[in-house]
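Re: that backbone. Tokens:
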């Protein structure tokens, strides 16, 4: 049941992120509004990079097939500590394509994760927000929603209406 709730919340967060950006013209995604440090392209790319790291890497480790939808420089481009800038070489369309393949992979693979698998400790570096695989999956949705707030602020700063 806990896995189902985590996946359901991740789907809600992903859906909300898509709703926030779907009506923004591509040329506005690169703008960094006055009194802000970020743009839509970086925020949305960061959401995707984090979903990959939290909902896949931290849960089941890296698979060779990941390279088919996550370019080699994607994580470093949008990782914590990276910055929005005009040299990011990804287009909005590329981000949507990566996001779609990522979502398909998470949904497909999560069907095979049972409680005994998800209640194991994550491998790799310690994270301050979770210790177990199920917690990494749960945190993915929370992290997405956090960045939805930032996307919403940028959306308003660009002159678009807020969404409920």
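Recovered sequence:
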């Amino acid at each position: 049941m806990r896995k189902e709730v985590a996946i359901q919340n991740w789907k809600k967060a992903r859906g909300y992120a898509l709703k926030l950006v779907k009506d923004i013209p591509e040329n506005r995604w690169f703008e960094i509004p006055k009194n802000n440090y970020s743009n839509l392209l970086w925020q949305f790319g960061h959401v995707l990079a984090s979903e990959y790291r939290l909902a896949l890497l931290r849960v089941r480790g890296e698979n060779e097939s990941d390279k088919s939808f996550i370019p080699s420089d994607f994580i470093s481009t949008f990782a914590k500590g990276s910055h929005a800038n005009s040299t990011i070489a990804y287009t909005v369309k590329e981000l949507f394509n990566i996001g779609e393949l990522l979502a398909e992979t998470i949904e497909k693979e999560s069907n095979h994760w049972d409680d005994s698998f998800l209640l194991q400790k994550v491998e790799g570096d310690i994270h301050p927000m979770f210790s177990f695989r199920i917690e990494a999956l749960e945190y993915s949705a929370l992290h997405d929603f956090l960045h939805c707030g930032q996307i919403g602020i940028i959306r308003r700063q660009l002159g678009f209406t807020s969404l409920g």
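The chain has one domain: 2-157. The two ends are 28 Å apart (CA to CA).
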